[in-house]
Design brief:
- The chain is of the alpha+beta class.
- The protein has a single domain (11-98), classed as GMP Synthetase, Chain A, domain 3.
- It is 49% helix and 17% strand.
- It has four helices and three strands.
- The chain has a three-stranded mixed sheet with strand order 1-2-3.
- α2 packs across α4 (66-84).
- It is elongated, with a radius of gyration of 18 Å.
Length: 104
């Protein structure tokens, strides 16, 4: 008979589960949605809304107008650099979706 194991903390159990199921990369990608406003600044944040990130690293962003979508498409390399910070390649592409910002 083996000695009983000491119970692990919830934090340790959650960390083990996240690591085992490969969720760390997805969490890193999801941070891009939360960081959107800081990365683009208040003027661009007012006319855009980051929606989600696909598993392959494509950030989906809703844009208020076609004109803004065109302008932001030209700015995409700089925006990607700001979003990724020191985690190179976290977000690979941005896909702009024109439409109302108040829709999910």
């Amino acid at each position: 008979m083996t000695a009983p194991r000491k119970p692990s903390t919830l934090s340790d159990a959650l960390d083990a589960w996240v690591t085992k199921h490969g969720m760390i990369k997805r969490f890193d990608l999801a941070v891009a949605v939360a960081d959107w406003s800081d990365a683009v600044g208040p003027q661009i944040a007012a006319v855009t809304r980051a929606l989600s990130v696909t598993p392959d690293g494509t950030l989906m962003v809703r844009v208020a107008t076609h004109a803004w979508a065109t302008e932001l498409g030209l700015m995409a390399p700089r925006i990607l650099t700001r979003l990724n910070g020191d985690k190179r390649g976290r977000v690979q592409h941005i896909r702009w979706q024109v439409g109302p910002l108040d829709q999910p």
